[in-house]
Amino acid sequence: MFHKNISMAQKLRSHDWFGRKDKDGIIYRSWMKNQGMPTDMFDGRPVIGICNTFSELTPCNAHFRDHAESVKRGVLEAGGFPVEFPIMSLGETLLKPTAMLFRNLASMDAEESIRGNPIDGVVLLTGCDKTTPSTVMGAASVGLPTIVVPGGPMLNGRYKGQTIGSGTHVWKFDEDMKTGRMTQEDCEFAESCMSRSIGHCMTMGTASTMACMVESLGLTLPGAAAIPAADSRKKVMAQLSGRRIVEMVRENLTIDKVLTREAFENSIKVNAAVGGSSNFIIHLLAIAGRIGVDLTLEDFDTLGSKIPLLLNLMPSGKYLMEDFYYAGGLPVILNELKKELHTNVITVTGKNHHDNIKGMTDCYNEDVITPIAKPLKPEAGCVVVKGNLAENGAVIKPSAATPALMTHTGRAVVFESIEDYHARIDDPNLDIDETCVMVLKYAGPVGYPGMPEVGNMALPKKILEKGITDMVRISDGRMSGTAYGAAVLHVSPESAIGGTLALVQNGDMIELNVPERKLHLHVNDAELAKRKAAWKKPEPAAKRGYVSLYVNHVLGADKGADLDFLQGSSGSEVTRDSH
Ligand code: FES
What residues pair up with 386 in beta bridges, in sequence order? Predict the structure, then answer.
């Protein structure tokens, strides 16, 4: 079963541990042997770390032990030595106050676990939203050969004959409960119908967006993103990835060779074409910061906003990831977009996208993946708006919003915190109508802390009852990728550090003009200066521990909300031994 190994002419990093002929060598080898490893496991095989974000508290990744076994099979077949290790897993649904607060912490865990151990190449098992960017950020800061195995979406949800999508239908059910169209009993039945298999959210939410991101960046085998978690071909993909990472080590195909500026440009365009989440922006900026690629917030608008929407998936469309897979998956999108992409950049296969997708470009359902000549919508990407209310920019996803609201001026109704919003939003006496602009403060990286997905605030009950489902909403928070609406997000600088958002008062007029990329607070500079002088910076959210580190070092949303000292790479070298 085992191949003979890599030639000793190519020195493996792991040889610095297992190849030693001294006391340290005994220690490095002997304790591994307590797992029942034969001595010849250490004879120069590429050691492949399988970075597993499995956790039963991350339900989207709870099936990853199975995937790890498939990867191990592939690694062994190719003559490598697989070693699985856990890292902090970030479950979007359970973790408080928000999984985003811990993305950077998990990235540190991934980085240090990879660097500090005798690993020659790494497989990242990722699924739920933050588990993909955090592990890729960590791996990028080390620089070893790296391949990603996305865990796959859940199967389509079906409720009373209707297709329902993770997240996207949560907001709908919530509205239906508020307006009496759904009972609590119906809702609990619908919950079971929505999450009926292993896997992550099956809408084009952030997890699916991240899977498409890593595939378009060239970090997965072709076609990996859309395969449902429950499909046996997902395990095949995991096994093939295990084989491939061993070859990547032999070829010294490191992550920095894949993550070039061109790869990032490809990913921005693909994200627009699939109607990917606005969270893509913040994660891609953070990854670029680690690998040293110069990427700006404006690049997402310049490169992505004119790309047509090709994929008819919730929340921008009507289908789900399972349908995307059956229609042909991401290779079809890459083929449709080929004139827009750098198809010649190298990927983890050692080949470029053009060669990777040969034989995979037929579309089997043009209602799910539309041809570029007849797109679902002519323009799809996120746009960046700026103005005195967001000097460093804010983002909005027009494809998931009501077109008529893309040019709108309205009276501000201000919520000083998410608790303030919850306390007053359904008060019949709240002075609000559908022409108003809902403003939420202190939901940014420092303010919350951790920038939660609260930017798509549900509309007041009295407005929902009129049958109105969208209003302009502005915050320094994020929005779930499964959500929709005219939500202006990621306002930077954020309110907690004294951004203009902190100074908005009830009754101020706010102008959103997406075609002109403008977000303007109609309050004169003198008045703003007066309000700024009276503004009091909130107390820090924590005085100790990781949260204190986070609020003192987190960068703005326009820079990817990484910690300032984590930007860049430290390479893979560790010069000193532990004994
Ligand atoms: Fe895990 Fe949506 S909650 S992917």
Answer: 518
User: Is the full-model pTM beyond 0.90?
Assistant: yes
**Whole-number pLDDT of residue 398:** 87
From the list 256, 221, 438, the residue with the least C-alpha distance to 348 is 221
Atom 2, ligand 1: which residue's CA is nearest?
201
* More confidently predicted of 167 and 249: 249
CB 205 less than 6 A from any atom of ligand 1 = yes
d(CA 166, CA 120): 37
User: Atom 3 in ligand 1: which residue has the minimum CA distance?
Assistant: 92
Distance 400 CA to ligand 1 centre (A): 19
To the nearest 10 degrees (0 to 180), the angle between helices 279-291 and 206-217 is 40
Cα separation, 257 vs 346, in Å, equals 7
C-alpha distances in Å from residue 125, one per residue of 111, 225, 303: 14, 12, 29
CB 333 within 8 A of CB 370: no
- Tell me if 106 CB under 6 Å of ligand 1: no
Contact partners, residue 539, CB within 8 Å, separation at least 6: none
What local confidence, expressed as pLDDT, does residue 26 receive?
95
Report the separation in Å between the CA atom of 112 and the middle of ligand 1, taken as the mean of its atom positions. Answer: 25
Q: What is the pLDDT of residue 288?
A: 98
Q: Is the CB of 92 under 6 A from ligand 1?
A: yes
| Structural tokens at position 355 | 């060669």
Average pLDDT over residues 450-458: 94
SS3 250: helix
Q: Structure tokens of 345?
A: 């950049």
Chain mean pLDDT for the chain: 95
User: What is the tens place of the pLDDT at every residue in 288-337?
Assistant: 999 999 999 999 999 999 999 999 999 888 999 999 999 999 999 999 99
440 C-beta neighbours (distance < 10 Å), count: 25
pLDDT band at 274 (very low <50, low <70, confident <90, very high): very high
The predicted structure's pLDDT at residue 3: 45
Helix, strand, coil shares, percent, the chain, to 5: 40, 15, 45
Split at pLDDT 50, 70, 90, the class of 386 is: very high
Atom of ligand 1 at shortest distance to CA of 166?
A: 2
The response to whether residue 129 sits with its C-beta less than 6 Å from ligand 1 reads yes
What is the spatial distance between Cα 291 and Cα 267, in angstroms, rounded to a whole number?
Answer: 15
Strand locations in 165-273 (E): none
pLDDT of residue 2: 39
Nearest ligand 1 atom to the CA of 91 is 1
CA of residue 154 to ligand 1 center, whole Å: 10
Alpha-carbon dihedral of residues 176, 178, 181, 186, nearest 10 degrees? 70
CA-200 nearest atom, ligand 1: 4
Contact assessment for residue 134 and residue 52, using Cβ atoms and an 8 Å cutoff: no
Largest CA distance in the chain: 78
Q: Which of 53, 56, 60, 208 to mutate to test the pocket of ligand 1 (most atoms within 8 A of CB)?
A: 60
